[in-house]
Each structure stands twice: as structure tokens, then as C-alpha cells.
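User: quick one, fold this
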Amino acid sequence: MYEVKIYSGYKGEERPRAILMDGKEYLIEKILYKEIVEDFKTRERKIIFLCFCNQKYYKIIRLPNNNWECYEQK
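Assistant:
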């Protein structure tokens, strides 16, 4: 699991800006995809980003509790 740095603009935690891996910070070069997924029972929303960074693709998820998760896509 990686740590995610985010851009906090007008709306707050809007989008990921960098990924911290092994003590190094890698800027996200491009956000390729953004999707908002809502659970129909709880009405909680997740925001999913597919990003390109450090010559790899990463899936970054903003959870309903405002925590962020990051996974390398293979």
C-alpha cells in the first residue's frame, strides 16, 4: 500500500497529486479515468481514479471516510 498526496482546492480533497513509495515522492503525470461509485443501500460514495505515474498505472480510491487507498495496476 502506498501513501497518496492530494490536491485540496475549492471543494477540499479533489484529486490525487502524488504517490509516496519507499520514502520517495512521484508526481502523478496524468489522471486517465475518474468514476464515482455509489452503494445503493448505504448511499456511500467512492471516487476511483486511474492514474499514470512512474511508468506504471495506479488505481487510487477515495473512500467514504475520506481515507485514500492506492494499488498498482498490472
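User: anything notable?
Assistant: Strands lie at 3-9, 12-21, 24-27, 30-38, 45-53, 56-62, 68-73.
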